[in-house]
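# step 3/5: fold
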Amino acid sequence: MTREVERTDDGRWIVVDGRRWRTADPALPDDVRARLLHHLGVARSAVRTSRGDDDAVAAARARVQLAKTGLGERGPAWWDQDDEARQARWEAALRALGG
């Protein structure tokens, strides 16, 4: 069962269990969002399966960070960036993640 996500009035945050989390950049093209979410899922899985190997966990967490930055959930706030900076952010993340 999927529960409804609470959003702030400005649309910049979701609220989960009383804690605010930054939403992904709404300007992301659908294909870019899908690719970044794929990378995020693979990286999160690698964090789980790499337990006990500190270097592998660190590398996987760095990939999580890259994907979340590309999505606009981390790093400079997407609402403070112009369109060019937003696009440069997600393109840089995809390049670093290998596409």
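# step 4/5: annotate
Strands lie at 6-7, 13-16, 19-22.
# step 5/5: archive (pending)
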